[in-house]
């Protein structure tokens, strides 16, 4: 992707590894800019990888812009059987040009660069209907909180109070930055329960919050899944 100058952000399980919340993943999940020039670069990269589209929908800007994922299997000897899943739109996440500006770039000891979806955007992307995503979301936020809580930035304080899902840590954060917690109660009502004597209510509120997000994701994907079913089973004339 880098060699072909693709504007792409690593997300999914492999991005979680970089952020310290390990998750085994056989897939490489990428968020890409779906304009004509960048998709041309992406096609060149896929040719280099000897990648074939392995499921519906077909590879096109139209499907990507509507929120579908396009799935590829690589046949290049150095990437044999690797699966690459490409998306251009994520529920609850701002458009690609915005998230690109706040991307995370990491450099390894050999000078290789890895360009990731920012942690706040990755957390939003993990708010799906899939049960396996919620423990990972919790670990992602916890890992950053435990690493930086001694000297946080204002942005980190707000992020943790918006996204922490461990009741005890959320109570701790609300006590550490009470004014920030009060200012965010309008957005996240359950912060009213972020008190030591209200842990049970907080735990119940977190469960309701998760349930609501999972339902929103299910409703978001319902028409997209219907499109995929129509592609898999075209009407017979």
Question: What do you see in this structure?
Answer:
With 237 residues, this protein is α+β, with helices and mostly antiparallel strands. It has two domains: 8-118, no CATH class; 133-222, no CATH class. The chain is built from ten helices and seven strands. A five-stranded mixed β-sheet has the order 1-2-5-4-3. A hairpin with a 5-residue loop joins strand 6 (104-107) and strand 7. Helix 8 crosses helix 9. The radius of gyration is 20 Å and the shape is globular. The model has no long low-confidence stretch (mean pLDDT 95).
Share in helix: 40-55%
Strand content: 5-15%
Radius of gyration, taken over Cα atoms and rounded to an integer in Å: 20 Å
Give the overall shape. Answer: globular
Q: Tally the helices: what do you get?
A: 10
- Which structural category do the helix and sheet elements fall into? alpha+beta
Quick one: how many beta strands?
A: 7
Q: Write down the secondary-structure element order.
A: EHEHEHEEHEEHHHHHH
Identify the quaternary structure here. Answer: single chain
Largest sheet: 5 strands, mixed
Outline the low-pLDDT stretches.
none
Physical arrangement of strands within the biggest beta sheet:
1-2-5-4-3
Short description:
This protein has 237 residues and is α+β, with helices and mostly antiparallel strands.
Layout of strands and helices, then pairs:
Elements: E1 8-11, H1 12-18, E2 27-32, H2 36-48, E3 51-53, H3 61-66, E4 70-74, E5 83-87, H4 96-101, E6 104-107, E7 113-116, H5 119-125, H6 133-148, H7 154-163, H8 167-176, H9 178-184, H10 199-232
Parallel strand pairs: 2-5
Antiparallel strand pairs: 1-2, 3-4, 4-5, 6-7
Helix pairs in contact: 8-9
């Amino acid at each position: 992707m880098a060699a072909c100058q693709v504007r792409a952000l690593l997300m999914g399980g492999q991005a979680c590894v970089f952020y310290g919340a390990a998750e085994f993943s056989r897939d490489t999940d990428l968020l890409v800019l779906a304009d004509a020039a960048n998709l041309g670069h992406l096609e060149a990269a896929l040719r280099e990888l000897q990648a074939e589209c392995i499921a519906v929908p077909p590879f096109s800007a139209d499907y990507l812009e509507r929120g579908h994922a396009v799935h590829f299997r690589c046949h290049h000897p150095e990437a044999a059987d690797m699966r690459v899943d490409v998306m251009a739109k994520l529920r609850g996440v701002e458009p690609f040009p915005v998230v690109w500006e706040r991307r995370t770039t990491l450099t390894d000891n050999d000078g290789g660069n890895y360009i990731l979806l920012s942690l706040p955007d990755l957390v939003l992307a993990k708010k799906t209907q899939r049960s396996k995503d919620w423990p990972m979301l919790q670990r992602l936020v916890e890992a950053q909180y435990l690493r930086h809580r001694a000297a946080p930035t204002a942005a980190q304080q707000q992020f943790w109070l918006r996204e922490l899902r461990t009741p005890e840590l959320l109570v701790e954060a609300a006590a550490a930055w009470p004014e920030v917690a009060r200012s965010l109660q309008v957005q996240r009502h359950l912060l009213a329960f972020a008190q030591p004597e209200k842990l049970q209510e907080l735990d119940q509120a977190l469960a309701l919050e998760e349930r609501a997000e999972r339902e929103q994701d299910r409703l978001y994907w319902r028409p997209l899944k219907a499109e995929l079913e129509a592609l898999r089973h075209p009407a017979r004339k």
